[in-house]
Structures are given as C-alpha cells and as structure tokens.
Amino acid sequence: MTSHPLPPVPAAPSGPAAARPAPAAATGSAAGSPAAADLHDLVIDWFDEHARDLPWRRPDAGAWSVMVSEFMLQQTPVSRVLPVHKEWLERWPRPADLAAEPPGEAVRAWGRLGYPRRALRLHAAATAIAHRHDGEVPRDHAELLALPGIGEYTAAAVASFAYGQRHIVLDTNVRRVFARVVSGVQYPPNATTAAERRIAAALLPTEEARAARWAAATMELGALVCGARSPECGVCPVAAHCTWRLSGSPAHDGPPRRGQTYAGTDRQVRGRLLAVLRAAPGPVPRSALDAVWSDAAQRSRALFGLVQDGLVEPLPGERFQLPSR
DNA sequence: CAATCGTGGTG
DNA sequence: TCACCAAGATT
C-alpha cells in the first residue's frame, strides 16, 4: 500500500491584516485532495469493521438517545454511561417525559456519573425542547447550541450523529488523532485552538453523510486505537500516514499538562453531600449532611455552592432535598 | 483564558 | 501507589 503525503493544511493567518474571506476557489482544498480521500477511506473502512455496538448508535436510536448519551459522555467513560443511559431511555423515552418530572429526579437517576450539573442541564434542555421545540430534539446546530449544557462539541455531535449532518466534531479523541496524524505531536493543546479547527475543517469530507461517518470514525479511532496513554499503532489504519509516528513518536515537550487534584477539595465534599441526598427518598436533616465531612467551614461552603447551583433545595427547619423544581 | 465542576478505572 | 485520564460546558 502506497503511503501518500498528508494533505496540506492551510497556514494560519499571520496577523489581523491577514483576516480575509475564504478563498473563492477551493482549489487544492485538503478535503478534496487524493491524500485526504485516502485517509477518509482508511478510517471509515476501519470504523465499518471495528465500531462498537453502542445503544445510541443503533439504527433505532433516536436523536433523544444520542443527546442523552452526549451529555453523559462529557468527561465520563462509555463503560459507566451504558447502564445509566439504558435506565434513562426506558424511564424517559422522550424529552417531555423527563421534563414532566422534577429536576431532582434527574439528579438522582444520574447516580454516580459525576458532574451532576449535567443532569440538571439535561433536564433543563428537555424542558426547553418540550416547550419550545414541540418535543423534538432540534436539528439546527444553532438551536442545539442554545440549549443548556450544549456547547460547540455537543451541538455538532448531535447534529452529526443523530441527523447525519456535516459538522466539525472536535472532541478530545479527534483532537488527539489530528495532533498525531496531522501535527506530529503526542498531545493536542490544552484548549481547542483555531489551528485545530482549520485542520478539522480541511479534512472534513465534502459529502454530508460521509462527513458524519468520518466524525464518528475519527472519534472511535481515538477512543479505541489512538489512546492517550497507549496508542496501538500496530493496528492503526493510518499508521503509515501518521506524522507523529513517522517522526519517531516524539514525547510531549513543553509544560506538563494540567492535572486535576481531587482529594480534599470542595468537589469531593459536594460529591459526598449529594450522595447522601440521592440516597434519601425525601428531605434530609442537616445533621445527616454534617456527618460526611469534618471541616465545618468547607462543608457549609460546599453546601452553599450546591444550593446556589440548584442541585440542592433548602427547606424550612434545617432540612435539604434534591431540587423539586 | 483559567478555574471549576465528580467519579472510578488504570498503567 | 497515585497521577493521569474519560464523547465538555460554563463563568
């Protein structure tokens, strides 16, 4: 198999003066170049054979299933999402079903997926869909983006995966794949950059259905083969095209990537407080919450934060519960 | 732009 | 063991 050079990626504008309309003639556009088409085939063919059979990818999965999965998958691994996603779709088959229940039920059913504000936002998004979108998950990227808890990535993912549209889908997996294959570095930057968007745009297949397939395929490649810790280049369909690999897989240089500490933080306290409230069928006395953390100052700060975030509802008589509305 | 926001698996 | 990582969004 012949190894083609990578498609050229448009250079970054060198300054404000360089801001200009996109070239009228997209001659030599990377997406249409032979090398790009080659990459598309390799990755999509690989995907056809190795894609995981996930519930939200099945033919009968609707946009709501996709949307719920995207919320749950924000910073949470597939293996832990699977059982909760199943419960949610059985209990709330449509957005209106979720919207009909108090937000606290969403927080409770969220279980231990982490970042429970996502549950609150998903409930709020479902409510907005029920009221303003006739109960249907919107197809329009801008309308999706306007929903609570949906950012650039999730809007593109829902539009692409649920509705087959052509969008730049830049998640951590895709960014890592492009960092290696195209940019020749081990890891992408901490925050998504304009350069990354240019690369993604340049490589996005022109045809809509193929673009959607490409988005899912590049994500899956990043998840299954081009992992952060252990890239398995031996089975990678584009190893022969990978700039990083071809240059000897150089280790990441520069400042260490941000690490997240957890032990002893407010987040840990919030987690413990909320765990008590999730487990209780109804209101809980303050004494039950006091038991989870010894430092009173930090404890009250965490509880206050939860109330402020709408995750906890204070009641008369020093009692607390999950939000009833 | 950097900090914040949970939780559990893993190399 | 423990730092790192996992389909980000919001402020």
TrEMBL record:
For this UniProt record, give its keywords in alphabetical order, as a comma-separated list: 4Fe-4S, DNA damage, DNA repair, Glycosidase, Hydrolase, Iron, Iron-sulfur, Metal-binding
Q: Where is the composition biased (Low complexity)?
A: 14-32
Q: Which reaction does it catalyse?
A: Hydrolyzes free adenine bases from 7,8-dihydro-8-oxoguanine:adenine mismatched double-stranded DNA, leaving an apurinic site
Q: Where is the composition biased (Pro residues)?
A: 1-13
- Is Chaperone there in the keyword field? no
Report the EC code(s) recorded for this entry: 3.2.2.31
* Chain residue ranges for the region called Disordered: 1-32
Task: Tell me which residues make up the HhH-GPD domain.
Answer: 72-224
Pfam families this protein is in?
Answer: HHH (PF00633), HhH-GPD (PF00730)
Instruction: List cofactor names only.
Output: [4Fe-4S] cluster
Gene Ontology MF annotations: 4 iron, 4 sulfur cluster binding; 8-oxo-7,8-dihydroguanine DNA N-glycosylase activity; adenine/guanine mispair binding; metal ion binding; oxidized purine DNA binding; purine-specific mismatch base pair DNA N-glycosylase activity
Q: What is this organism's lineage?
A: Bacteria, Bacillati, Actinomycetota, Actinomycetes, Kitasatosporales
Annotated family = Belongs to the Nth/MutY family.
GO BP annotations, alphabetical order = base-excision repair; mismatch repair
User: Can you name this protein?
Assistant: Adenine DNA glycosylase
Q: Does the keyword Ribonucleoprotein apply?
A: no
Q: Which domain of life is it from?
A: Bacteria
